[in-house]
Structure formats: structure tokens, C-alpha cells
């Protein structure tokens, strides 16, 4: 079981960020068009929709596919528990919650870069690993 390298983790977070931003602005555009919200309210509603929808989507996808999210499936990374077994619901909950909030993903990337380790802060928090399935 090899952990995912830093370059794959960076691509994973970039794909997730693009997906979450697309969902947020796409989901909030009816509010802007119909209700004529101010731009600041539009951004806040967009971020709220993105956080809620992305958390639910990532959590359900991780449970249904036994450790894959949209971004991880594209780059070839699977999430497993620390003992190598399938990820549990609690671990999927912690991982999807921390990956949904962009600030935690940035902290995780900084942690990976500074410590030169293959196991990030989100991995340690949820007691799981991001393994490379294409090696």
C-alpha cells in the first residue's frame, strides 16, 4: 500500500476546487437572477451552497464507491482506513468535511509541503490514508 505522492494530491485538490466552485456559482445563479441580490450576498450564498452540496456529495460518493471522490477517481487515488480496510462512515464524514472547506485543503497542502511526508493533516485527523491505485 503506497501513499499518494504530493503531485497527485495537488491535482486532486485542484479538481475538487474547480468542481466546488462550479457547483457554488451554478447553484447560486438563480438567486442572483431572480432575486437581484447584491454581489456580496451572491458570493456568500454561493459559498454556502458549495459547502453544503459538496460535503453531502463527497460523503455519499465516498461511502458508495468505498473510498473514491470525484477528484480522487480522476487522478487514481483511493482513501482507505489506516489498517488498509475500507474507509468507515466516520472517517468518510471527517475527510469529506475537511476537504470541502477550502482552508483545510490548503492547510493540508502546506502540511504536506513543509513536512515532506506523504500523509497529510486530513489523513491524520480522519485516521486514513490516500493510496495510489495506479502504481
Provide the number of structural domains: 1
Mean pLDDT: 82
Shape: elongated
Number of helices: 6
Strand content: 5-15%
- The total count of strands amounts to 2
How is the main sheet built?
Answer: 2 strands, antiparallel
Helix content: 55-70%
- Enumerate the spans where pLDDT stays under 50 for 5 or more consecutive residues: none
Strand line-up of the largest beta sheet: 1-2
Task: Please tell me how large the radius of gyration is.
Answer: 16 Å
Structural class by helix and strand composition: mainly alpha
Q: How widely separated are the two ends?
A: 10 Å
What is the N-to-C order of secondary-structure elements (H for helix, E for strand)? HHHEHHHE
Topology:
Layout: H1 6-35, H2 39-64, H3 70-75, E1 77-81, H4 89-100, H5 102-115, H6 121-126, E2 128-132
Antiparallel strand pairs: 1-2
Describe the structure.
The protein contains 6 helices and 2 strands; from the N terminus they run αααβαααβ. It has helices at residues 6-35, 39-64, 70-75, 89-100, 102-115, 121-126, and strands at 77-81, 128-132. The longest helix is centred in the first third of the chain and has 30 residues, at 6-35.
Give a summary of the structure in a few sentences:
The chain has 6 helices and 2 strands, in the order H-H-H-E-H-H-H-E. The protein is mostly helical. The chain has one domain.
List keywords for this structure.
mainly alpha; elongated; 135 residues
